[in-house]
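Look over this record before class:
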Amino acid sequence: MTSMLLLPESVHQGDLILVSARHPYHPLPPQDLVPVAGTEVLLERRAAQALDDLMAAIGGGWSAIVPVSGWRSQQEQQQIWDDSLAENGLAFTQTYVAQPGCSEHQTGLAIDLGLRSDQVDFLRPDFPYQGICQDFRREMAKFGLIQRYPAGKEAVTGIGHEPWHFRYVGTPHAAIMAEKDWTLEEYIAWLRSFPCGNGRACEQEAALSFLPAAAQGPTPVDLPKDCSYSLSGNNVDGFVLAEWGRCHG
């Protein structure tokens, strides 16, 4: 094992951070943002690469699917909120637009996609449950992507059903959420049942455990040397450790 200390701000970093009205985004230094499919839409590099790989896997996805909105600054999110409020009213805006500071788009890990057409709605792009869009959904978990705001989960996420909004959470997390039909909120809550040192959940050939953040100061963690792993803050109260090569049935 290798021991290290996680700084308090680390809880707000990583692929599994939960950003919502209850858990605002903590602004960080600029991410490693890159253009998506030759457009001005930006995503964090590893999310953009996963999306490109997925599009290639479904057979030229970028010829039929267009990136609509990726990373947004605080100022851009404020403008979108204000414009929607003026044009659509409070009820619509609260359903489909996150308040500034509470949007996944500010992380660089989320993207809105639309079926390519002459006119694409910026707030609610068409992304049907058929054709190549459904091919995208069937394969996305393999590449670490989830549909973030599914139908029937509005009470959990606090956001209306958004067929067009996708989020990079990485592997194996996306596959586990897809298998169990869980949102990110439900997944993070479940992981708290497996504190580090007191047993692990073995899913998708990975051992998963939760490490609560220290009440004050850095959080010590022992990281494996005999297997691959990923570590992410959850933007709430701790860290998720995923290890490959530690599940034994």
Q: What stands out?
A: The mean pLDDT is 93. The first helix runs from residue 45 to 57. The longest strand covers residues 162-168.
